[in-house]
Amino acid sequence: MKGKGMKYPWAKWILGIALAYAWGVPAIAEGKITVFAAVSLTNALKDISKQYQMETQIEVVVLYDSSFTLAKKIAEEGTLADLFISADQQSMDYLAEKKSIIATSRYTLLSNELVLVAPIDSNIYNVAIDKQTNWKNLLDGRLLALGDFDHVPAGIYAKQALEYWGAWPMLDQKIVRTNNVRATLALVELAKVPLGIVYGSDAITTDRVRVVGVFPDQSHKPIEYPMAIVNGHDNPNINAFYAYLKSPTANTIFKNNGFSVVKK
């Protein structure tokens, strides 16, 4: 775990959660559509991939991780992925600069919200997030979990929001950094931390946490999910799945999983 201060005794939990997401994916195989996607899309893309295979008999294999980790992998080993879906524009910008994506295929598909979550049995309720938020009392000597703000989009948005409200200087030493947003969620589910910052779409995937606050949109950059076809992978199969992700069927699944579909 990066950052100042001592290592915390539950660091092994973070490592275990990270490994579960790194290893808990199917092998990439030929003859299938391979998607690299932000880990916050896990539930929605599982549903969409299943539905697409039922309709077309074409299998979609998805590798999930933090967006910039995947972007770097595509830039270095571009032949692995056919399609990339990021949880931020910056990771897609990086691939555009590397000329690793087909520029004309870049399309902002979804948006999300940033929320504060607590374990289901927490005594924290209805936190108004603004300049008056008393983070010291809320944390009560414990730590706040969020994605690693050096590269995890959810963590970057969280830092932006906390800076906006003037809370960052006080919280800088009271943060557990995680490798992706689902690892943050897991720490809250396990009650290893009293609070975590995740996406609204993550919060609805479990009954072991509840949303106790919503970060106002003006406190952070828009949370947008662009997608693009990887350079050299423009073919009818990939184009068909790319189009399917914009379809009413996929839109319904995304909405059911807590995302907002960006209107064009």
From TrEMBL:
Record-linked Pfam families: SBP_bac_11
InterPro entries: ModA, ModA/WtpA
GO BP term, pick one: molybdate ion transport
Signal recorded as keyword: yes
Top-level taxonomic group: Bacteria
Keywords per UniProt: Metal-binding, Molybdenum, Signal
Any single Gene Ontology cellular-component annotation: outer membrane-bounded periplasmic space
Positions of molybdate binding: S40, S67, A154, V181, Y199
GO terms of molecular function: metal ion binding; molybdate ion binding; tungstate binding
UniProt record similarity statement: Belongs to the bacterial solute-binding protein ModA family.
PANTHER family reported in the protein's UniProt record: MOLYBDATE-BINDING PERIPLASMIC PROTEIN, MOLYBDATE-BINDING PROTEIN MODA
Subunit architecture: The complex is composed of two ATP-binding proteins (ModC), two transmembrane proteins (ModB) and a solute-binding protein (ModA).
NCBIfam families for this protein: modA (TIGR01256), PRK10677.1 (NF007958)
Protein name: Molybdate ABC transporter substrate-binding protein
Organism lineage string: Bacteria, Pseudomonadati, Pseudomonadota, Gammaproteobacteria, Enterobacterales
